[in-house]
Specification:
Length: 119
Amino acid sequence: LGEFLNLFAAQLGHISIELAGVDMYKGGEIVSGDADDIAVWFIDTDYNYESFFVRHAYFPGANDPYKALKTTLKAEIDADAWESLKRTRSRPFPRPKDGRVAVKVINHLGDEVMKVVWV
């Protein structure tokens, strides 16, 4: 995730994370992808190195996961609510008490990478 991850001071005592893409190690080389290659990304806003708790989830990819979810659930989904999750910049959240945030990214092939960030 290295250079693809940016932290922003959103407001006093709060931060926001922006994800521009993801690097995956495949076949002996690093393959870079942009936000369209990301199926889902999660944030643990107070990571403890023992367990990853999904506290934020976003679905920025080029595919339309909402259509598949709507079909699977056989229900109507609030389009505005789901659209708010199709983003690469997180909603602001309080700075973690221990200073650690973990970001987990999964691409459309199911490959996963995680980075811990000190804030």
